[in-house]
């Protein structure tokens, strides 16, 4: 998995590529935990993500909870395979997906 970050004022974009699984989810979690409190909008660009496991879903849920207290979070560029997982687990109803 690779992670690229872009800060634009109060918006923070994390562009993810590869697999979000048991091995890589902690790296993404560390990036999200380290987000400055001035961030009001978290964008997870998942254009390059081809797979997400339950460990990755847990990170998304934790990020949603964190950002729900101070602003918003949204997913962009979700591929069909990942979207299917989000729908089957009910995460599509919880998360903002564009």
Protein model, in words:
With 98 residues, the protein is of the alpha/beta class. The chain is 41% helix and 37% strand. The chain contains 4 helices and 5 strands, in the order ββαβαβααβ. Strands 1-2-3-4-5 form a 5-stranded mixed beta sheet. β3, α2 and β4 form a beta-alpha-beta unit. The two termini are 22 Å apart.
Q: Characterize the biggest β-sheet.
A: 5 strands, mixed
Roughly how many Å is the radius of gyration? 12 Å
Assembly status: single chain
Q: Order of strands side by side in the largest beta sheet? A: 1-2-3-4-5
Q: What structural class do you assign from the helix and strand content?
A: alpha/beta
Quick recap of the structure?
The protein is an alpha/beta fold and 98 residues long. The protein has helices at residues 25-33, 54-70, 80-89, 91-94, and strands at residues 2-8, 11-20, 41-52, 72-76, 96-97.
Pick out its properties.
98 residues; alpha/beta; 5-stranded mixed beta sheet; 41% helix
Question: How is the secondary structure organized here?
Answer:
Elements lengths: L1 E7 L2 E10 L4 H9 L7 E12 L1 H17 L1 E5 L3 H10 L1 H4 L1 E2 L1
Parallel strand pairs: 2-3, 3-4, 4-5
Antiparallel strand pairs: 1-2
Helix pairs in contact: 1-2
